[in-house]
Amino acid sequence: PAPLLLVATAIWTAGFDVQVTLAEVLRAAGRIRAASFAGGTISNLAFVAMLGVMWFVGRPSPIDRILIYQAGIVVFSVLVFVPSLIAAYASYPFRAHFGGLPGLVWESLPAALLVVLYMLIVQADVFALGLFRPEDVAVYGAASRLVLVLTVPGVVLEGALMPTFAAGVFSGAITDLQRLAQEIACVAVLGALPILGIFVLGGGWLTSAMFGPAYIGSGGLLAILAFGYLAAAVSGPALLLLVLSGRQRLALAVLCACTVPFVAAVAIAARFGSKELVAMAVVVGIWGIFLALVLTVRYSLHVWTIATPVAMVSAFRHGFQSWRKFHG
């Protein structure tokens, strides 16, 4: 039912925002390993495990029970990092300065809105199909959720290297910053390519195995969407560099300007086309959004973040040198 679907989306979105905030707090304390997992990894793994158990049992579950499971997963994914949070900040003296709270909120608001806007972009195609073609929501939704796995290599790398990126931004070492950004983009592409291959060659089998035989049609949609979300790896840490350099409002303006035509194109495709046309509109829109972010970083920070063949060779060279140094 539509109301319960909105409740499920709201729970997941709010939980994701809390987890991202928790990850940033842990990262600020130097708990890089915990921060890398706190940004949604635990909840995503638990959600996949829940789907696996439901598939293995083979019995339909009522939507209200699934909502309870989902809320429990979100709460668990936050509470599991509380001990790490306490260990990181227990020795810090508590000094509250509530007078500066409005200014802090005002400065943080663009970054928070970026997260909300990102969630809107990710959910726009499902909402458009729910409005114009509700019979396709289930098959399309399965593909649109699975395809987000393609973004995991880049997200993990950016989270782990965020302090290094911040140091590069504020030191003004543009050459080193560009080299690192492009090499990270190349490593993210190398991590995403095997996932892309699985989605393209075995998408139908994967969706059928995870969600049931009725979802074999999701495989074709998964293959189409995968080529769009590959842009997240190819474009590198463009959005991250804008945020770290204090250009949150610029990033928000660019993302807002891209979101309007993206949502319009997806809505038109859902109204007058098919679910396959919606997927193709998403591919074009996602590439447009990430390329716009790359160009914004280029002309505001004078840094290219996109993966290139030269950067790929450099990434292999530095990786080989690190391996030789580690093994003596």
Task: Kindly describe this structure.
The chain has 328 residues and is mainly α. The protein is built from 16 helices and no strands. The longest helix is centred in the middle third of the chain and has 38 residues. It is globular.
Write the layout of secondary structure elements.
Blueprint: H1 2-28, H2 32-38, H3 41-57, H4 63-79, H5 82-89, H6 101-132, H7 137-146, H8 152-160, H9 162-171, H10 174-211, H11 218-229, H12 231-234, H13 238-244, H14 248-272, H15 275-301, H16 309-326
Helix pairs in contact: 1-2, 1-4, 2-8, 3-4, 6-7, 6-14, 7-11, 8-10, 9-10, 10-11, 10-16, 11-15, 13-15, 14-15
Helix content: over 70%
User: What's the pLDDT, averaged over the residues?
Assistant: 82
Approximate strand percentage: under 5%
End-to-end C-alpha gap: 60 Å
pLDDT under 50 segments (min length 5)?
Answer: none
CA gyration radius, whole angstroms: 21 Å
What letter string, H or E per element, gives the SSE order? HHHHHHHHHHHHHHHH
Summary, kept brief:
By secondary structure, the chain is mainly α. It has helices at residues 2-28, 32-38, 41-57, 63-79, 82-89, 101-132, 137-146, 152-160, 162-171, 174-211, 218-229, 231-234, 238-244, 248-272, 275-301, 309-326.
What descriptive keywords fit this protein?
328 residues; 16 helices; mainly alpha; globular
